[in-house]
């Protein structure tokens, strides 16, 4: 059971993030508080310092209800992802409502609109939710296409957006007062991967192989912006297109440049191609890659011994079925989904609901946008049932800046991916 759940979680997260980072298709009982952090008065645009703004009129809140809604594909090729996200989100909200709601209010999910993973449909959905359905907050929000198409509208309307499910840096950079990210963005992830190579493994000469996509471009930017502070050097970088299979030249070049560590910001097939070519050319540089490639089944299966020594990030720890929180999650999800076990998409929806509820709880009975945003800004390394180590603050919207590192090793004659650190590894 342990190996099964770990494999499903990693594979599903990889697929979810690959979908999120690609170009948009044509149509395509609540957790416990770990203590507040210091913060400035709420209501400051972009989470930055400035004059406190007048209290805004609140929509979607009555004495007995608070309205929320979002968009996620429920039909088309991405429907399996969106349906699971919806199931996870609804399960936790139903659980909370069955416990009496939050401060006497039941949470009403007015709509999770089927945007078919299409940006224009997502923007239409966002406008309906805000202007017609009059929701207090937007969740769940699935996918890069929909988030980016709606981004300017989100910023203009200032309605809270809880856990946009995409890795683009715009979820947190620049920080917007109403947008609260959870999963790591490409920019911050590349920084922490580079930091691990330099600070923990003692490597100073770094190369980056990156995909021509938001993921690759933003990852490269993260490395460039941070490497000087780390006291290291970027000796080489090279882009490639999605679907590339020949990495002979970039691997030869990074070898000739004396790279000691290689940050790989691309998706699974290309990552496999890169480590195979490194193995073929006898490159000794240490490869480290995005959490979208933390796949304990396909990495060993597809790369074989070439994968040995590869590090991959992970923003949640390996799932342990003996963990009471995992058991509680399975129980809640199954109770409202006919006994089904959740996949990673369901986990993501559940986490979005946990964060939403935590904000409502800590905002108090007098619910305003200012009190809600202040409540989330006060979270400092907060964990719920499945939400882990979330931190926000004035000018900070990334949520997760801590990683669990995984490494491919040979163990008992098998090639396996194992978790390296038991405690989350954080940016300086």
From TrEMBL:
Gene3D superfamilies: 3.40.50.2300. This is Leucine-binding protein domain-containing protein. It comes from Symbiobacterium thermophilum. It comes from the Bacteria. GO terms for biological process: amino acid transport. InterPro entries: Leu-bd, Leu_Ile_Val-bd, Peripla_BP_I. Residues 1-27 form the signal peptide. Residues 25-58 are annotated as: Disordered. It holds the Pfam family Peripla_BP_6. Keywords: Amino-acid transport, Signal, Transport. Belongs to the leucine-binding protein family. Residues 65-407 form the Leucine-binding protein domain. PANTHER family: BLR6548 PROTEIN (PTHR47235). SUPFAM superfamilies: Periplasmic binding protein-like I (SSF53822). Residues 25-43 have a biased composition (Low complexity).
